[in-house]
Design goal:
The chain is mainly beta. Helices cover 10% and strands 40% of the residues.
Length: 208
């Protein structure tokens, strides 16, 4: 199945193998082409080492885990993935940025898409309903409410792969007005699914 995704005025084709399973970026045109890496002069977020771990689903990173910290330019948070994950800046505008992260080799690879958008209307209910239709890949499952600002969905395709989706709204601090939404999706082999969940949970832990 081929999905057309409008990003920044351009069109990106996302291919889902057999209508499920592994999403990959197949082609793009217009402004949606991969953008240059953020300038080193951009403001980098600081990883909050004192943030309490939050689990949306599955485990969180433990002291003995081998991880890498990502601090994308002008993002409102930093977060960790497994140490051998690579992330690439895909597309960005002042109020919208997206990264793709990968681990392993196709077909036994893990791919994660992470999008941050600034809310236009304080992430109110109407805006949330609209934003939840803009996930990079089809969630293939109805999202479940985890808490007042977080929804998630997990699907086991029965072919050795799973996909996790998280949509989370947050502000500058706990209890502050909502300003952003982070949309996280990870598609992986069953054996690596916990690494996807840990990355997603780390993002949730770093965003009050």
């Amino acid at each position: 199945m081929v999905l057309l995704l409008l990003i920044g005025g351009g069109v990106t084709w996302l291919v889902l193998n057999n209508d499920k399973g592994t999403p990959t970026v197949a082609a793009s045109s217009g402004p949606a082409s991969p953008s240059p890496s953020p300038s080193p002069t951009e403001v980098l977020p600081v990883f909050n080492t004192s943030a309490a771990p939050v689990s949306v689903l599955g485990g969180t990173w433990q002291p003995g885990d081998q991880t890498k910290t990502w601090d994308f330019g002008n993002w409102p948070f930093a977060f960790r993935t497994a140490a051998d994950v690579t992330c690439e800046f895909w597309v960005g505008e002042p109020n919208y940025k997206a990264y793709n992260c990968n681990r392993g080799v196709n077909p036994a690879h893990t791919v994660m898409a992470i999008v941050v958008r600034r809310c236009a209307n304080q992430c109110d209910e109407a805006e949330q309903a609209q934003l939840e239709t803009t996930t990079p890949w089809k969630p293939d499952v109805t999202l479940t409410t985890k808490d007042p600002v977080t929804k998630f969905g997990n699907v086991d395709y029965g072919d050795g792969r799973q996909q996790f989706t998280m949509v989370h709204y947050f502000g500058k601090s706990a209890g502050a007005p909502l300003e952003w939404v982070v949309i996280f999706q990870g598609n992986s082999p069953n054996k690596d699914h916990e690494l996807v969940l840990k990355a997603a949970n780390d993002i949730r832990s770093q965003t009050p």
